[in-house]
Amino acid sequence: MNLKEFGIEKDKNDVLKSFKSRFVNNPNEIYLDGNSLGKLPKISNAEISELVKNQWGSKLISSWNDHWLKLSEDISLKMSNLINSKPEEVLVGESTSVNLYKIIYALLESNQFKKNLVTDCLNFPSDIYVLDGLKHLTDENKLTILDYADEINCNYEILKKSIRNNPGIYCLSLVSYKSSFLYSMKELNEIADKYQSIIVWDCSHAIGVTEIDVKKSKIKIALGCTYKFLNGGPGSPSFLFISKKIIHQINNPIQGWFGHQNPFNFDHKYIPSKNISKFNAGTPSILSLLPIKHGLDITLEAGITNIRYKSIEMGEYLIKLIKEELFCFNVEIASPEKSKMRGSHITIKHDEAWRICKILIKGNKNRKKIIPDFRPDSNIRLGFAPLYTSYTDLYETVITIKSILKNKEFLLIDKTKNLVT
Ligand SMILES: Cc1ncc(COP(=O)(O)O)c(C=O)c1O
User: Fold this and answer.
1) pTM of the entire structure?
2) Which H helix or E strand runs over 201?
3) Per DSSP, what are the bridge partners of residue 30?
4) 101 and 73 assigned to the same domain
5) Ligand 1 atom index nearest CA of 225
6) On the CB side of 324, how many CA atoms lie within 13 Å of its CA?
7) What pLDDT is attached to residue 67?
8) Residue 340's domain is classified under what CATH number?
9) Which residue's C-alpha comes closest to atom 14 of ligand 1?
10) pLDDT tens-digit map of 208-252
11) pLDDT over 90 for what percent of the chain?
């Protein structure tokens, strides 16, 4: 069986194949950017209209009591099912960057850990900017960014040595946005515990597509975007998990009314809620929260074990295709080769990466548009979302890239255009 036939066979036997029809799809497009912005579930489309028309349009303020105040709780419950936490350990609200700021500030103020901030070169720039903006609260006015030999794999020796010799507050992205490197969380959390450190896990590229069990992995704090593999919609609020073991030790630096024990008593004195809701600040963004509920429902129904299994199988298949079809055109793989060390995208490198992306996105009358994303300097991220990406999509993508390279089609694109894809 060749790789094309193998892909067709895998699609036929795919236990998740029916889930694609739950999303709004464009039949002339292969979407490989679900690791950046997930697709729109059809049910969210309908439910947002109902919310706007009836709950907001007609029932106005009474919808707070009838629908909206319960919405956050409902989502926290679903999220806690996904990560095996208690519902009162999770909230959903604000962006990942804002939640990271609140958490790092809270940890630095708590005096529970050495006031020392560390991250690594695989982390997402926004996280690094947030940490850098808080370094004035550390003992040495410093943020340490660990450098590894490349930006593909974490060097565990360097990271573990740092935790041992330089304990404090660490922030790592569970799946690295560029290379897709997936950390071994449990082992690192145990080392952190042993050396009076804490790791804050940014799970933006992992949630909804890898198995995250906060109990088994001994996670104390995790957060991340819901608009990627959870399909919550553009800018949907992030989730924040704080273990019960540490919630009472830290305080939200933003003392807003939704973090108050009794916000509707309108007291002048701020008394923080006893549970994770103390990390709320202002009024929840109802329009942005609603689709997260449906994204979570679909994920829970499909089952995270099935999703992860398919993601691994797709990754293995894509690597084989890249090796067989693209290596002879100077394409390199810039992701870990072992599936257990990888999330749900694979990054390839080529000097003409940007122009290749432009050509893929354009499509033509003989082939579908293909949507990957470009990351400087020369990376193309191919994200596969097991709920709606097929093996045949991956096959068609690789064959299209091969044809672009073989026919030097990328020369049709002006190299000097702006770099935003
Ligand atoms: C790993 C990671 N962390 C943080 C962010 C920033 O999230 P937000 O825009 O919700 O602050 C992103 C955005 O893509 C991301 O990929």
Assistant:
1) 0.97
2) strand 198-202
3) 370
4) yes
5) 10
6) 12
7) 95
8) 3.90.1150.10
9) 36
10) 999 999 999 999 999 999 999 999 999 999 999 999 999 999 999
11) 96
Query: Tokens 């020796």 identify what position?
Result: 157
For residue 149, being part of any structural domain is answered with yes
H or E segment to which residue 287 belongs: helix 286-302
Pairing of strands 198-202, 169-173: parallel
Which residues form the domain of 8? 3-31+303-412
Flag whether 39 is in a domain: no
Q: How far is CA 102 from CA 78, 125, 138, 418, in A?
A: 23, 17, 15, 35
The identity of residue 179, as a single letter, is: S
Q: Which two tokens stand for residue 189?
A: 């959390």
Q: Point out which residues pair with 175 in neighbouring strands.
A: 182
Query: Which mutation among 95, 97, 122 tests ligand 1's pocket best, with the greatest number of atoms within 8 A of CB?
Result: 97
Pocket of ligand 1 (CB under 6 A): 95-97, 124, 126-127, 173, 177, 202, 204-205, 225, 238
Residue 280 lies in a domain: yes
Average pLDDT value for the chain: 96
What is the atom index within ligand 1 of the atom nearest the CA of 123? 1
C-alpha separations of 105 from 121, 204, 205, 244, 258 in Å: 21, 20, 23, 18, 19
Considering the domain architecture, whether residues 17 and 127 belong to the same structural domain is answered as no
Report the pLDDT value the prediction gives residue 421, as an integer from 0 to 100.
Answer: 38
